[in-house]
Design brief:
By secondary structure, the chain is of the alpha+beta class. Among the domains are: 118 residues, Arc Repressor Mutant, subunit A, CATH 1.10.10; 75 residues, Alpha-Beta Plaits (2-Layer Sandwich), CATH 3.30.70. A hairpin with an 8-residue loop joins β8 and β9. α1 packs across α2 and α8 packs across α9. The two termini are 33 Å apart. The mean pLDDT is 92. It comes from candidate division TA06 bacterium B3_TA06.
Length: 295
């Protein structure tokens, strides 16, 4: 099933994807949509199948305490059996990003993001699964103590995960609490810009390929185009990437397009301007696995 979305819903998906929010009102502010319509927009996205159930994904460094790092494991070939082994073997697996790649082997088809306390332990798991690529450390963490949760806080996070809901009024009905209590607890428990001590991150699996009028692309273009990026990407939401493995001949840029027709038109424009793309990757899915701790 596919659907078309307006700019507000696409901005909402971007905010969900980035994390750093605790309640739907935060999403409304980040996506620049009204607080009165945020609940209806979230339910419409769930109903359309563009997003899956919401999850309170455990932030393992805070939950367990100690030294941790977040790693990315990149696969450049499509290997569904290998991906299945990694999902089963990576105990701290947070999410996986799945792309459709064209004309290049420099963008990964699948990227797994996971937490681990030691790089050597992670490398051993990867070797046993048959992964040749070395994991890359993204961020490191040091939490002196583990966070202790009350029974009611654990129940709230379990309820988010069992119902897939993040709307305070719906969670309050399940827990027989006031929505204000649910909202206050989520702001204390969820990792966001005003709470670096949060123990969980609110995320949802996003099926980007189900949106008819949206494409998020990573594009490799000739280095000679660097001084003309503002001109070449005029009217688009775009950003230059610092991509591991980029060469001196190309630069990597990410940009959003209003569907296949818009992307094909822009690609032709780039070719006519003398900067044919050296390859591109289209975002297909963000799958939330949220492994490593049961509340």
């Amino acid at each position: 099933m596919s659907c078309s979305l307006d700019r507000g819903s696409i901005a909402l998906l971007r905010a969900i994807s980035h994390g750093g929010w605790a309640v739907p009102a935060d999403l409304a502010r980040l996506a620049c949509v009204s607080s009165e319509e945020i609940d209806a927009r979230l339910q419409a996205l769930r109903h359309s199948g563009v997003i899956g159930p919401f999850r309170a994904a455990p932030f393992l460094p805070a939950m367990h305490g100690g030294l941790w790092a977040r790693y990315v494991v990149r696969l450049y070939k499509l290997d569904l059996k290998l991906e299945e082994r990694l999902v089963g073997n990576l105990s701290g697996l947070e999410e996986s990003l799945h792309n459709a790649c064209f004309f290049t082997k420099r963008f990964p088809r699948t990227s797994f993001f996971c937490f681990s306390q030691t790089a050597e332990e992670l490398k051993l798991i990867l070797r046993e699964a048959g992964v040749e690529e070395e994991p890359l450390e993204v961020l490191s963490y040091n939490f002196p103590f583990s966070v202790v949760l009350s029974d009611e806080e654990r129940l709230l996070l379990r309820t988010v995960n069992s119902t897939g809901e993040v709307i305070p009024s719906l969670l309050a009905r399940q827990l027989e609490r006031e929505p204000s209590w649910v909202q206050a607890k989520l702001r204390r428990l969820i990792l966001h810009s005003d709470n670096p001590q949060g123990v969980a991150i609110l995320r949802a699996t996003i099926h980007w390929y189900r949106i008819d009028n949206f494409i998020h692309a990573h594009v490799l273009i000739p280095i000679e185009a660097k001084e003309r990026l503002s001109e070449l990407f005029k009217g688009l939401d775009w950003d230059e990437l610092s991509w591991p493995g980029e060469s001196s001949e190309t630069i990597a840029v990410e940009a959003d397009f209003r569907g296949w027709g818009h992307f094909a038109e822009w690609k032709s424009y780039l070719e006519l301007a003398g900067f044919p793309p050296a390859g591109f990757a289209l975002s297909a899915e963000e799958r939330i696995h949220a492994k490593g701790f049961e509340f």
